[in-house]
Amino acid sequence: MSSAGQALKLGMIPADGIGREVLPCAARVLQSTPGAPKFEFVHLDAGFEYFQKHGTALPDATIQSLKNDCDGAMFGSVSSPSHKVEGYSSPIVRLRKELDLYANIRPVIGVHGTKDDDKWVDLVIVRENTECLYIKKEQLDQKGSGNGPVATAIRQISQHASSRIGKKAFEVALARQQMRVKAGIAAQETGKAKVTVCHKSNVLSVTDGLFRTSVRSVFEDDQKSKGGPGRFEGISMDEQLVDSMVYRLFREPHVFDVVVAPNLYGDIISDGAAALVGSLGVVSSVNAGDNFFMGEPVHGSAPDIAGQNKANPIASIRSAALLLEYMGYTDPALKIYAAVDQVIREGKYLTPDLHGKATTTECQDAILKALTN
Ligand code: ATP
Ligand code: MG
């Protein structure tokens, strides 16, 4: 861990496939951003390819270094084998657990049009990362009640996890509002600064009911806070059933600001939302706990294009900016977002997923140039 005045230590985990090509781009951008702190990058191993050579997908040394030496981290991408491989489990799922990174925060930002456009997509999905159906408590009763096998899965929703993800969502909305002000876009102008609670409590009244009331209470308790305005003043809250959420997300994505959802709904709507903006290659995320953050592009290892200098580095570069933003360095983060926006707008150095002809390196270089001009 670095102390005051020293370089920030970032654990870099390229892992598999295009992760190895795009993570170095993110590191170069971080190093070249005016006003960013100095960085010391610590290379760390993980991934399916590492598992095939060494029998583990996440060596203890990686976990220990992240816990004891690093101020933050960046993850590349991991291959997910389509069949069950004995002894293999996903390193990213384990890392989130080990570091208690309970929130997956995924901004979805338009690639076409401009920010003045009132249909501009700029929303963030805050997905709960630790429970719901992902606790993987499944059972198979071979006999059932006489009509053949019956499978059951337990879905766990706790007040603790729901409240803390709710709090995180309101903090994200607050930070976005502050960033808009800093970038010269008043929140009132955009009519945004809002948290939408996504659930299905009309059917799952016990589990989703608890999620809904826990998140709502975070906001309501804040509004009731005595002695002046609450922390989340200026932010509003509404809610949306997950099915109509999907419908609205596809019809009018521009109306959303921050959407908070339990694990499964969050997983589904965030992949769907990525489709709204044209390519997985531009969608970033940060895994957030209370004191530790790990940037991670949303895409996988893309074996179809790995090793060809074709991958879009923007998702990783934006994830690095998100990491900076969550670590409190908003000015350099804004510079990176602006440089990426400029390169997308100019359209000259885009990779094939965005219908351009540029290589990974050329796209990275254009962003570096935009940053320093
Ligand atoms: P994995 O099992 O690692 O998730 P995958 O085959 O599902 O691998 P993804 O990485 O999820 O691959 O990508 C899905 C599709 O999107 C692929 O065709 C891939 O080439 C494309 N893609 C993903 N990321 C990028 C990127 N950064 N730049 C360009 N294309 C990308
Ligand atoms: Mg995939």
TrEMBL record:
Keywords: Magnesium. This is Putative LYS12-homo-isocitrate dehydrogenase. It comes from Meira miltonrushii. GO terms for cellular component: mitochondrion. One of its GO terms (biological process) is isocitrate metabolic process. Belongs to the isocitrate and isopropylmalate dehydrogenases family. The keyword Magnesium applies. Residues 9-367 form the Isopropylmalate dehydrogenase-like domain. One of its GO terms (molecular function) is isocitrate dehydrogenase (NAD+) activity. The lineage of its organism: Eukaryota, Fungi, Dikarya, Basidiomycota, Ustilaginomycotina. The keyword rRNA-binding does not apply.
